[in-house]
Amino acid sequence: MATSGAIFDTASEQAYVRAAMRVPMLDRERERELAARWHVGRDERALRELIAPHLRLVIAMAGRFRGYGLSLDDLIQEGTLGLFQAAQRFEPGRDIRFSTYARWYVRSSIQDFVLRNWSIVRSGTTSAQKTMFFNLRRLRARLQSGSGASNESALRDMARTFRLALCDVQTMAQRLDGGDVSLNSPLPGGDAEQIDLLPDPSPSPEARVAAAEEMATRRAWLGRALKRLSLREQMIVRTRHLQDRVTTLSALGARLGISKERVRQIEGEALTKLRALS
Q: Is the dihedral of CA 116, 118, 121, 124 positive or negative?
């Protein structure tokens, strides 16, 4: 499999590519033998020999996803994990070469890594959204160049192609075109930052004043209403409903020298009086 060395920048990347390319490819019989040894006996030496010639597949696949601003080393690592997953599931008795079988796992592993890491905001959670994510730029350019269609018209065509809502396609396009912006990045023409544009979730001063006034009104009403109750009723209501720690009916009954059922009755009568005063 030919791989352009131009996409590999560092000496370590180039050395890794050269080492991978020097590993000879396996013939069908040797590949099947190694796969069987791993599949049946979990022979790790056979697994390593089966994997090594296919690292060039991982390298070539990783190179296709460099445009998302991620490290090639990380992409190769993720693709290698996909290669191992393919080896775990590969059945040597099937009439298919391992490279053909492993291609989907390698690509899927790299794509999942890109979706998780290209942006701090997770994108592409469904199969259709993933497909759109990796094809959006190319399809939009083709639709616009082929028909002279506007960007909006191209997005509508893609929404029909991917069977997604137009708003989902528009959101994905904005995410791909805009990228991430730090909340601490400065705004043009001043010392303010992006974070200064975010709305404050705390209540406004007007809302805080209104809430304080309402609380004061409720407390005043409650104070007046409690005075309409007997001292015993006031004590029961206060200890049962107006304290952080609720006193039990049994404890109140023992304190007042009555049964807990009588305390319950007095409590019910007192609450009925308070409701009538509201």
A: negative
Tell me how far apart the alpha carbons of residues 32 and 43 are, in angstroms, rounded to a whole number: 13
The owner of tokens 């460099």 is 66
234: DSSP letter: H
The string of DSSP letters for 259-274 reads: -HHHHHHHHHHHHHHH
What span, in angstroms and rounded, lies between the C-alpha atoms of 171 and 181?
Answer: 16
> pLDDT by residue (tens digit) across 94-108?
889 999 999 999 999
CA dihedral angle for residue 47, residue 53, residue 57, residue 62, rounded to 10 degrees: 80
| 145 half-sphere exposure, CB direction, 13 A CA radius | 6
- The CA-to-CA distance between both ends of the chain, in Å, stands at 84
- Give pLDDT < 50 ranges for the chain: 1-6, 120, 148-149
| Threshold 0.85, pTM exceeds | no
H helices of the chain, in order, are: 11-22, 28-41, 44-51, 55-63, 72-89, 98-117, 127-147, 151-162, 166-178, 205-226, 231-241, 249-256, 260-277
CB atoms inside a 10 Å sphere around CB 218 = 10
Q: Are 140 and 151 in contact (CB under 8 A)?
A: yes
Handedness of CA 156, 160, 166, 170 (dihedral sign): negative
221-247 CB burial, b ≥16 within 10 A, e <16 = eeeebbeebeeebbbbbebbeeeeeee
Grouping H, G, I as helix, E, B as strand and the rest as coil, residue 193 is: strand
Tens of pLDDT, residue by residue over 227-273, are 999 999 999 999 998 888 888 999 999 999 999 999 999 999 999 99
